Amino acid sequence: MARIKEQSTIQENKRSAFEECPVTYVMEKIGGYWKPIILFQLLSGSKRYSDVRRAIPAITEKVLIQQLKQLEADGLVQRKAMPVVPPHVTYSLTKTGMRLKPVLYAMAVWAVDDSKEHGAVFRRNLKNFPGANDNA
Amino acid sequence: MARIKEQSTIQENKRSAFEECPVTYVMEKIGGYWKPIILFQLLSGSKRYSDVRRAIPAITEKVLIQQLKQLEADGLVQRKAMPVVPPHVTYSLTKTGMRLKPVLYAMAVWAVDDSKEHGAVFRRNLKNFPGANDNA
DNA sequence: ACAAGTACTTACCCTAAAGTATGTATAAAA
DNA sequence: TTTTATACATACTTTAGGGTAAGTACTTGT
Three-state DSSP class for B135? Predict the structure, then answer.
């Protein structure tokens, strides 16, 4: 019979992991499937809500709004609403969000490299990658 | 009464999103909370299973193994088992996994920058970041 | 003899995230 | 006048991931 193990205080441990590992810190902000994808869409500049939605057809409205709100709360994106009707709302990256460009760009580079080896192809190639030629 | 909307064929749509957005491609491989953290630990070189576990106390054994297996299946990490007892198993990054270094490094840079603004502090700073001085 | 360490596996449960399907206000266009 | 479009909100259900707890096989150290 094995002894009772002590992997109990997970929540406490998460704090120390959070303090020691910068990647953990990042994942707390942009972890999950959709956030990097949304941020990627906003790299090319301010976009209306409906444009983001159309750019990512696989996401549902509920989840999109939810993720946008979280990104806004974490200071990565900025929401601007014009008080007109029909409503006109744009989302854009904050300064902090902009600083994620190297992360997203590195991801894109890796994806293109890796997909070359495995046969997948992107319609959008890196020449058109938003911000490929500036401070990335 | 609103019409019935058609956000049905999510699975089909995921394919097109996957083909158009490189970030989606990346998220399919390293998405989720733990994978980047595990990869980060392996950046500094080959490690025994138990070393990885001790380096990430917040993760449970089940999840760690599970994530390692997935990373192995996706060709990002390599498992080497020596047929001795007690078992001796090491994990290391594959060539493909190594190419993620710029991604992880960019994340770490962002985390340090961002935490400076918000008061958080890391015990491990970027001077000690594995591979900070080479082909990142 | 018994505990301890290694690298797992398995069964069960629980919750947070995601998906489904609606509703809503307003105004301009058809 | 019905439709269309915008940017959401909300109730309800499902699923996948993660957490808990324990077991296993074998050997070295005490």
Answer: coil
